[in-house]
């Protein structure tokens, strides 16, 4: 059958699809597809491997309701109208688990470089600002024994907690809908309410999914409940924090620093004030950007498509109700 891939992905996924006999077409233009282009190409194929930036909305799904399977090259899927896909009996897949370590590494990195103002100080060398020793200049903070607050203690949050506990013996607290018994047993993590997480954490790290409940939850009110010495880390979704409120909180020294792998909006504009702040670290959404993670994502996507085109249950299914 015919498979369309909306962005150039690691060869391991394409090769796997071709090895089982599928005809694979990959979008080779170095830019995202327009909705019209995505629809036009999908109409000529039996399966779609899409990106998080592709809008798989009700209009697209009804235009391409012939598709036997759609799989997303990501864990998150808030760009997909899952309810409509289920109604149309289109199984939707994603790539869970394989990017947990890579994304946790980025969260840990951002925490560390924000705490020591590393990105800002690196840029100061290029500007010629490295002159003489000043005992009170560019002071960062140590992380040993501090408290880490995880908002959304799933797989990625758990990996972040393990790193912080192992490297800095940080106390772990978390805010979740349900208890994470594994974290409580392994890391002595404590489940708390949102307001307590904000008030007691030295580092607040966001690892939840984006939903109507979490959209914009880190706003002016939330930042004002945090410690003035707190660092805010977000590697989940940019829409979970209100960026103007974050900028204000940092400029007014309501919180101490921030590290972001996701921004609101994306991509971030080059004149965003966050980029020039001493105690802020920004990365261009590279959470899963390792060879290992991207190869594994491509493999999972290929496996989803292979099963879907056989009429079998997807091994990594978002909408299991499609089979009822």
Could you explain how this protein is built, in words?
By secondary structure, this protein is an alpha/beta fold. It has two domains: 2-98 and 290-323, Rossmann fold (3-Layer(aba) Sandwich), CATH 3.40.50.720; 100-282, 3-Layer(aba) Sandwich (Rossmann fold), CATH 3.40.50.720. 36% of the residues lie in helices and 14% in strands. It has a seven-stranded parallel beta sheet, with helices on both faces. α1 packs parallel to α12 (291-309) and α5 (100-115) crosses α7. The mean pLDDT is 97.
Q: Enumerate how many helices there are, as a single number.
A: 12
Indicate the structural class.
alpha/beta
Q: Output the CATH class name of the largest domain.
A: Alpha Beta
Please name the CATH architecture of the largest domain: 3-Layer(aba) Sandwich
The strand order across the widest sheet is 8-7-6-9-10-11-12
Strand content: 5-15%
Shape: globular
**Fourth-tier CATH superfamily name of the largest domain:** NAD(P)-binding Rossmann-like Domain
Query: How far apart are the termini?
Result: 25 Å
How are the SSEs placed, and which strands pair?
Blueprint: E1 2-5, H1 11-19, E2 23-26, H2 35-42, E3 47-50, H3 58-63, E4 69-72, H4 82-87, E5 92-93, H5 100-115, H6 118-126, E6 147-151, H7 155-168, E7 171-175, H8 181-187, E8 190-191, H9 194-200, E9 203-206, H10 220-225, E10 231-234, H11 243-251, E11 257-260, E12 280-282, H12 291-309
Parallel strand pairs: 1-2, 1-3, 3-4, 4-5, 6-7, 6-9, 7-8, 9-10, 10-11, 11-12
Helix pairs in contact: 1-12, 5-7
């Amino acid at each position: 059958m015919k498979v369309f891939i909306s962005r150039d992905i690691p060869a391991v996924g394409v090769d796997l699809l071709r090895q089982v006999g599928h005809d694979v077409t990959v979008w080779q233009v170095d830019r995202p597809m327009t909705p019209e282009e995505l629809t036009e190409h999908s109409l000529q194929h039996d399966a779609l491997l899409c990106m998080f930036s592709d809008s798989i909305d009700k209009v697209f799904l009804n235009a391409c309701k012939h598709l036997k399977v759609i799989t997303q090259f990501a864990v998150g899927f808030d760009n997909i109208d899952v309810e409509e896909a289920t109604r149309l009996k289109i199984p939707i897949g994603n790539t869970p688990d394989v990017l947990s370590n890579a994304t946790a590494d980025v969260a840990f990195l951002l925490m560390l470089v924000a705490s020591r103002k590393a990105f800002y100080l690196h840029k100061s060398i290029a500007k010629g600002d490295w002159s003489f020793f000043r005992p009170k200049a560019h002071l960062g903070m140590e992380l040993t024994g501090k408290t880490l607050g995880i908002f959304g203690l799933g797989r990625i949050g758990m990996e972040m907690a393990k790193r912080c506990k192992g490297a800095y013996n940080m106390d772990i607290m978390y805010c979740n809908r349900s208890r994470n018994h594994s974290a409580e047993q392994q890391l002595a993590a404590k489940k708390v309410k949102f307001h307590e997480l904000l008030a007691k954490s030295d580092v607040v790290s966001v690892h939840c999914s984006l939903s109507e409940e979490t959209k914009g939850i880190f706003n002016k009110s939330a930042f004002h409940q945090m410690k003035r010495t707190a660092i805010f880390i977000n590697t989940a979704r940019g829409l979970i924090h209100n960026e103007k409120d974050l900028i204000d909180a940092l400029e007014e020294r309501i919180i101490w620093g921030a590290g972001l792998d996701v921004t609101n909006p994306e991509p971030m504009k080059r004149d965003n004030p966050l980029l020039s702040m001493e105690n802020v670290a920004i990365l261009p959404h590279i959470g899963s950007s390792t060879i290992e993670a991207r190869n594994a994502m491509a493999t999972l996507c290929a496996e989803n498509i292979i099963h879907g085109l056989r009429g079998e249950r997807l091994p990594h299914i978002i909408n299991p109700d499609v089979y009822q």
